[in-house]
């Protein structure tokens, strides 16, 4: 009697039906009764974690969260004060989510908290968390351990651009200033080299004439340097623009090619006449009918003659034969 | 004031029905969640208490789509037909011993007849949609409801034989302190224990004739099938035919179907309470000098009496509605052949036997 389906006769199945129905209802009511309790937001490492196996399991997420382990590895964070802008993280990143632009400093800027000297400014240190695959390779290669993964895991944004985190502490103006300083420094270095070279040459050749020359160019060169700086900055900006431009250029090229095509199409009307033949057959197919119709009309107009009366009749019949009157002909 | 009375009555019935429907909405979501170890709605109001309002507002905002290939007139008319007929069925139900929209003496008969017209609306909806699944759903609904009229009718007939009346108000009165005829323990006069002035649960129909408890369970099962509730939701089995007859409906018209379905649930539960569970009468009996039944009943026609009557009626109904919801989350859907087997081979023979027993019992009662 206890065995399921053992009594597949009328009374047996009826009894089993009633028993299982009550059993099912008991199970549901048991869960309803246990819904008084609520499973707490305990993490698995807590001792009483397995004691709460009854009651409501729902965690009202934004208001309640499960605790995250201390070594949770989610969103990346770069402590820029400790960063030496070595670019190792950007190089090892398998998905290229780290974007770094470094500017050489003219001298040592300072030291990181572990004593490593910093010689580079980070004009740009962007980590695109939308691309990140959380492999953690960047944190392992970081020599100063400034790049770490934090416990923050809920940082969804409405715009994907907002997933790109900027860690650089330099403003664009500051970055430009540092860049100019570097240029100036390099220029001065260059000048110093040239100067050293010319002095060597001057030592070998006659000094009188070249002394005069030495003074005049200095003044000119100092002016030129300023001019050069300006020119260089403008050139740099121009270069930046120029770097940006190639992205647009293909578009322009495609447009130009299209325009060229159009131009060629317009200029050479002969190829356009090649396109026309495609239409011509259609026109030709229509034309015969029209021509026939015109002919019919023409013939119907002079119909008053006896002969044309037969011809239009035949012509009107022939299209009908094609459509409907084939079976009568067969019959 | 005489002119305003019908409107007052209509208002009272509508507000009670809609109130119970909204409570059922909420119960449905919350009990479903608790049975499944979830919390259910928690955001809209305190413990999600305003969720039914939010649901209805959402439905009303939606676009009212009519498929191009549908029979437009019937399609638009079908949802409007169902709800009025269910409301008409509610009219004969007495809310208190003295308050009833229609005091007709053939209340039970009228109720069973008018509720069956509900099928017409379902068939119209399914046919007018001009789509496979609605048509299947409508056919299944018709087949199911027509066959379940039989056990439902027989179970009601059992009560009618015991009560000897078709008037629902009289059936209700017989199960309380103000019964027109004497009540005896388990209905048998020969036992000589009169319970007329003890009242409470002892005068309910399921105690007056103990076999009526089985009838009540059968009535409950049949009523589940009647209002297409799980496990008899074959006409709208989501996993098989999407939504059944209301697959093509959206927005306000879908809300009407939804409302009608819940109104039907409320109606059959109210009917079950009135026929079997002592209508508006208190379950607490008078024990010696502790007049629990008297205290919780009040005088006929007074404010206190009416309030207690509404309270008991509504609370019993809500209990039955909650049971419907729990049953929905307990049992899987029956196959069509299983449903027919249950109806024709199990419920109907048992009811025929109990009907015979009721006849004999009635002879012992007087």
Q: What strand order characterises the main sheet of chain A?
A: 2-5-7
CATH class of the domain at 76-170 in chain A: Alpha Beta
Distance between the termini of chain A: 81 Å
Q: Unreliable stretches of chain B, pLDDT < 50, 5 or more residues?
A: none
Q: What kind of sheet is the major sheet of chain B?
A: 2 strands, antiparallel
Structural class of chain B: mainly alpha
DSSP helix fraction of chain B? 55-70%
Strands of the biggest beta sheet of chain B: in what spatial order?
A: 1-2
Indicate the radius of gyration of chain A in whole angstroms: 44 Å
Number of discrete helical segments of chain A: 8
Shape of chain A, please?
A: rod-shaped
Summarize the structure.
Chain A is mainly alpha-helical and 331 residues long. In chain A, 56% of the residues lie in helices and 9% in strands.
Task: Explain what this protein looks like in three dimensions.
The complex is a heterodimer of chains A (331) and B (366). By secondary structure, chain A is mostly helical. Chain A has 8 helices and 7 strands, in the order H-E-H-E-E-E-E-H-E-E-H-H-H-H-H. Among the domains of chain A are: 76-170, Alpha-Beta Plaits (2-Layer Sandwich), CATH 3.30.70.3270; 184-251, no CATH class. Helix content of chain A is 56%, strand content 9%. In chain A, helix 5 packs parallel to helix 6 (269-300). Chain B has 366 residues and is mainly α. Helix content of chain B is 63%, strand content 1%. A two-stranded antiparallel ribbon of chain B has the order 1-2. In chain B, a hairpin with a 2-residue loop joins strand 1 and strand 2. The model of chain B has no long low-confidence stretch (mean pLDDT 84). Chain A binds chain B through residues 10, 14, 21, 24-25, 27-29, 31-32, 34-35, 55-58, 60, and chain B through 31, 33-39, 42, 326-327, 329-331, 345-346.
């Amino acid at each position: 009697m206890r065995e399921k389906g053992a009594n597949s006769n009328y009374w047996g199945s009826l009894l089993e039906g009633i028993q299982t129905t009550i059993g099912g209802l008991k199970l549901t009511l048991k869960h309803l009764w246990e819904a008084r309790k609520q499973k707490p937001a305990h993490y698995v490492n807590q001792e009483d974690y397995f004691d709460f196996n009854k009651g409501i399991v729902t965690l009202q997420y934004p208001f309640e969260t499960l605790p995250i382990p201390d070594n949770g590895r989610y969103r990346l964070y770069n402590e820029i004060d400790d960063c030496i802008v070595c670019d190792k993280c950007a190089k090892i990143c398998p998905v290229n989510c780290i974007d770094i632009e470094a500017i050489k400093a003219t001298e040592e800027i300072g030291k990181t908290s572990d004593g490593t000297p910093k010689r580079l400014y980070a004009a740009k240190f962007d980590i695109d968390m939308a691309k990140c695959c959380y492999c953690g390779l960047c944190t392992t290669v970081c020599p100063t351990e400034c790049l770490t993964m934090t416990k923050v895991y809920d940082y969804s944004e409405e715009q994907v651009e907002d997933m790109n985190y900027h860690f650089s502490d330099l403003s664009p103006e500051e970055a430009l200033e540092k860049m100019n300083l570097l240029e100036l420094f390099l220029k001065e270095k260059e000048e110093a080299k040239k100067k050293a070279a010319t002095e060597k040459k001057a030592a070998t050749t006659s000094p009188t004439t070249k002394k005069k020359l030495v003074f005049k160019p200095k003044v000119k060169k100092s002016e030129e340097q300023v001019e050069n700086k300006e020119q260089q900055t403008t050139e740099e900006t121009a270069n930046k623009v120029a770097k940006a431009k190639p992205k647009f250029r293909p578009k322009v090229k495609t447009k130009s090619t299209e325009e060229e095509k159009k131009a060629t199409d317009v200029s050479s009307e002969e190829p356009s006449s090649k396109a026309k033949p495609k239409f011509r057959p259609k026109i030709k197919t229509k034309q015969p009918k029209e021509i026939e119709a015109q002919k019919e009309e023409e013939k119907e107009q002079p119909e008053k003659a006896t002969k044309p009366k037969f011809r239009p009749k035949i012509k009107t019949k022939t299209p009908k034969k094609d459509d409907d009157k084939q079976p009568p002909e067969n019959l | 004031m005489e002119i305003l009375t019908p409107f007052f009555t209509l208002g009272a019935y509508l507000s009670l029905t809609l109130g119970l429907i909204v409570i059922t909405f909420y119960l449905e979501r919350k009990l479903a969640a608790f049975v499944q170890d979830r919390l259910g709605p928690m955001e809209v109001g305190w413990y999600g208490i305003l969720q039914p309002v939010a649901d209805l507002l959402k439905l009303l905002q939606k676009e009212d789509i009519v498929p191009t290939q549908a029979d437009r007139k019937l399609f638009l008319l079908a949802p409007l037909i169902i709800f009025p007929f269910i409301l008409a069925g509610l009219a004969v139900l007495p809310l208190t011993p003295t308050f009833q929209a229609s005091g007709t003496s053939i209340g039970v008969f009228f109720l069973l007849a008018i509720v069956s017209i509900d099928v017409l609306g379902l068939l119209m909806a399914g046919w007018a949609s001009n789509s496979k699944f609605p048509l299947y759903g409508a056919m299944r609904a018709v087949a199911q409801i027509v066959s379940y009229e039989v056990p439902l009718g027989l179970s009601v007939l059992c009560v009618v034989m015991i009560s000897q009346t078709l008037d629902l108000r009289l059936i209700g009165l017989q199960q309380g302190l103000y019964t027109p005829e004497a009540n005896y323990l388990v209905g048998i006069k020969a036992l000589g224990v009169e319970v007329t002035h003890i009242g409470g649960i002892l005068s309910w129909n399921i105690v007056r004739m103990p076999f009526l408890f089985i009838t009540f369970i059968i009535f409950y099962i049949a009523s589940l099938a009647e209002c297409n509730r799980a496990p008899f939701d074959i006409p709208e089995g989501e996993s098989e035919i999407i939504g059944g007859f209301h697959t093509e409906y959206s927005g306000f018209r879908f809300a009407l179907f939804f409302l009608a379905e819940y109104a039907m649930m409320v109606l059959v539960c109210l009917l079950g309470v009135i026929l079997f569970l002592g209508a508006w009468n208190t379950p607490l009996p008078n024990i010696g000098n502790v007049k629990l039944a008297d205290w919780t009943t009040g005088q006929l026609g007074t404010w206190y009496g009416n309030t207690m009557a509404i309270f008991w009626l509504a609370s019993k109904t809500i209990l039955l509605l909650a049971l419907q919801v729990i049953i929905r989350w307990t049992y899987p859907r029956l196959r069509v052949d299983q449903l027919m087997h249950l109806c024709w081979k199990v419920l109907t023979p048992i009811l025929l036997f109990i009907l015979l027993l009721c006849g004999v019992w009635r002879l012992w009662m007087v």
